Amino acid sequence: MTTAVAQHEKTTQSADAAAIRPFRVHVPEAELIELRRRINNTKWPERETVTDATQGVQLATTQALAGYWGTEYDWRKCEARLNALPQFITEIDGLDIHFIHVRSKHENALPLIVTHGWPGSVVEQLKIIEPLTNPTAHGGSASDAFDVVIPSMPGYGYSGKPSTSGWDPDHIARAWVVLMKRLGYTKFVAQGGDWGAVIVDLMGVQAAPELLGIHTNMPGVFPNDLDKAAFSGAPAPSGLSADERVAYERLQFVYQKGIAYGFQMGLRPQTLYGISDSPVGLAAYFLDHDASSYALISRVFAGESEGLTRDDILDNITITWLTNTALSGARLYWEYWGKGYFNAKGVNIPVAVSVFPDELYPAPQSWAEQAYPKLIHYNKLPKGGHFAAFEQPQLFSEEVRAGFRSLRS
Q1: Can you tell me the distance from the alpha carbon of 244 to that of 230, in angstroms, rounded to the nearest whole number?
Q2: How far is CA 118 from the centre of its chain?
Q3: What distance in Å separates the CA atoms of residue 135 and residue 130, rounded to the nearest whole number?
Q4: Disulfide engineering: 251 pairs with which of 15, 96, 106, 230, CB 3.0-4.6 Å?
Q5: Mean local confidence (pLDDT), 229-256
C-alpha cells in the first residue's frame, strides 16, 4: 500500500468517526415485559428496624416505587419525549457519544453544553430545553436564547461504554470541547451539576479558548484544608462565618453519612453486579444519593406532588436499566477517586454560581469569590435541591440566563 493510499484511508476513517449520525430510541417490547417480570418477582427483605431513613432507603418507599413501576409506569412516554428531540451520536476518541442538540429559533443564540450527573441521564435536563431555547415563551427575552447541547456522559445512557480505563472527568471535559467545535461552535458556555459540576470546573481549569465561561449549581469552593478537615470528621475550625460554618457542617455530614455509594463505586465498582441484575436493587441504590433528595422522592411515592413526579424518577432509573449502564456509569467514581469533588480547583475563567438551599451544601459567597476569581454571578435560590434542573426547571433556567448574560457581548 502506498503512503498516499494509506493516508487517504486514514483520513476517510477519521472523517467517518467524526460523522454526526441521527439517533432514535426504540426498546423492544420484550425488554419491557422482562423488566416488569423482574420487578414483580423481587425478593424482598424485611423492613428496617428504625422509623427513619438512617438505615437506608426504606422498604415502604421501595415497595411503593416497585408497585407503580411494575404495573402502571409507561416507558413509551419517555421514549416519545426523547424521540421528539433531535438526537445524535458521534465518535470522540474511539467512543460513541450520544447527545441532544436543540437550536433556538432566535438569532445570536448562545451555544450551551449541559452535563448531567449520577445517578443520571439526559432525562434530568429535558425540562430546561424549551425555556432555554425559546425564552420568549417562558418569561425571558429573545436576547437570552441558547442553542442547547446535552450529551450522555461516557458509560451513561446511550453513549458508549468505555472498554479501557482513562475516561475520567478531565477526558470528558476535553471531549466536550471537541463535540462543540464539531457542531460548528467557535464560542460557547458550559453548565453542570453533580458530575457535571466537576466536569465544568475542569473545563474551566483547561480553559479552552472557545469556552467563554461556566455555570455551576454544585460549585467546587472548599479550600483544600477545610475539605480535608471535613472529610476527617474534625469539628468546624474557629474563624468561619455563619455561612461558612453551615457549609462545612453540611459537607462533613455528606462525608460521614451521605456518600456511601461514592466509596463503593470509587473503590470497587465492578462488585455491584446486583444493581445490574435487579431493577429494584438499582432503583434503591439510585434513590440513596443524598438525604434531601431522598426525602423528596419518598414524599412523591407517598402521594405528594413536589418538584418531581413518579414518572420523572422512574424515567431516569429505567434508562439505566434498559441500557445496562449501572456499572459502566459507576466506574466514573473509580476513575476520579481521591481527586476531590467539592474543593476549589483553580478555575480562572468567568463563572456563574447558583446556590439551591437543599444542595449537598450551600456554597458561601466568600468561598465562591476565592475559588472563582472571575465570579460573574452568585445567587441564592428560595427552593430546590441537588437535581435542580430536574426539580426546579423554571428557576434553574432563569439562573442560567442571568448567569451568562454578561458574556453575550
Answers
A1: 12
A2: 6
A3: 7
A4: 230
A5: 95
Catalytic center residues: 194, 333, 386
Q: Measured between alpha carbons, how far apart are the two ends of the chain, in Å?
A: 52
Q: Report CA-CA distances (Å) from 289 to 164, 224, 238, 297.
A: 27, 24, 30, 11
Residues whose CB falls within 8 Å of the CB of residue 264, separated by 6 or more in sequence, listed in order: 271, 272
Look at the block and give the residue holding cell 423492613: 47
Cα–Cα distance for residue pair 118/329, rounded to 1 Å? 8
Q: Is 9's pLDDT higher than 80?
A: no
As a whole number of angstroms, the distance between CA 70 and CA 23 comes to 28
Q: What is the pTM of this model?
A: 0.95
- Residues near 203 by Cβ (< 8 Å), separated by ≥ 6? 173, 176, 177, 190, 211, 214
Q: Which residue has the cell 431513613?
A: 53
97 sits in which H/E element: strand 95-102
pLDDT digits (tens, 9 = 90+) for 88-134: 999 999 999 999 999 999 999 999 999 999 998 999 999 999 999 99
Contact predicate 280/62, CB 8 Å: yes
What's residue 11's pLDDT? 47
Closest residue by Cα to residue 172 from 129, 148, 132, 201:
201
> In 10 A of CB 275, how many CB atoms?
20
Cell output for 85: 428531540
Grid cell of 40 as nine digits: 414483580
